[in-house]
Amino acid sequence: MNKSILLSATVTVLIAVFYFFASMRVGVLRGRLGVKAPATAGHPQFDRAYRVQLNTLEQLGIILPLLWIATFFPTPFGWLPALIALIWLAARVVYMAGYMADPDKRLAGAGLSGLSCLALLATAVTGLVMAWTSAPA
Amino acid sequence: MNKSILLSATVTVLIAVFYFFASMRVGVLRGRLGVKAPATAGHPQFDRAYRVQLNTLEQLGIILPLLWIATFFPTPFGWLPALIALIWLAARVVYMAGYMADPDKRLAGAGLSGLSCLALLATAVTGLVMAWTSAPA
Amino acid sequence: MNKSILLSATVTVLIAVFYFFASMRVGVLRGRLGVKAPATAGHPQFDRAYRVQLNTLEQLGIILPLLWIATFFPTPFGWLPALIALIWLAARVVYMAGYMADPDKRLAGAGLSGLSCLALLATAVTGLVMAWTSAPA
Known about the structure:
Three copies of one chain form a homotrimer. Chain A is mainly alpha-helical and 137 residues long.
């Protein structure tokens, strides 16, 4: 088993754990704060927690595909995709902590998340270009 | 082709079919009940159907990555990830039926969905730990 | 490296680029139009841009899994999954342009997106059936 695949798989599971926690929190706050389903807004704390979860899901749709493309089409730095995804995950923890305290404090974590997406995109594109140029015609 | 990969692929397609149906329903109800885009709320039946779809998407972000990590880093029970994902899918059908009848009846399906996520997480972590401990240094 | 895998990976990255652009636009409009977080509605232009992003995410949950199942369980037309996903991406660009101009103009792009999902589903199912019937018992 390739080591960089193992690294990317481990970070993927860590991301799933974080996202599971963010989702559970929404369910718990829904009960505690009396936000009745199917509403997805109704109390400031709930609203923030739900946005943290949904915004994380919005980024999962880009982070996970790029992580795995970059892992399977590696540059010479095979560990790089897993490292960037780990930085993204750390940025999400900062984002969550900031957002729950005050929506205006979400921006540092949001910015670092976005930059991590771009870095992972650059890595994936580099790996793909290398694969295309080395592929037999 | 490994049999457990084929099983996980089949369950993935079944999940896609269910999710496609849940999404189509939202579009149909939007037209029938006159909920004009870009609104995502406006009629109780529509609101429930949309939450069923979106909550399913929220869980796809965790179920599919864990299913495939668990499949590619197998425990001795290679068929287990596909089985858990199938139970998750059954829980989603129960969730949808309950939610459409009455939002308070969503909880049984939601609980079983959450437990399936945890079971898949435990399976993926077990497989990863086995892969790390058997990986050459 | 199999050529159809390289094609599907390339389309996946193109999809990620489009989705990243759709997401960035929401963030930019949030600032420009003064839609304060955690609200996800508040100005017609913002509301449309957010629905474009979220509806695209809703479909990513079905398009990406089916694209990769169809790629790894190929029919004799190995390039077909990447081509359908590319058509889906083009439909999304049409959808975005239409929706931003007028929500009622989203339907052409939405319809073609949905048909692409169905075509990818049919391709994935065909590939899976071929794999099952050729798998040793």
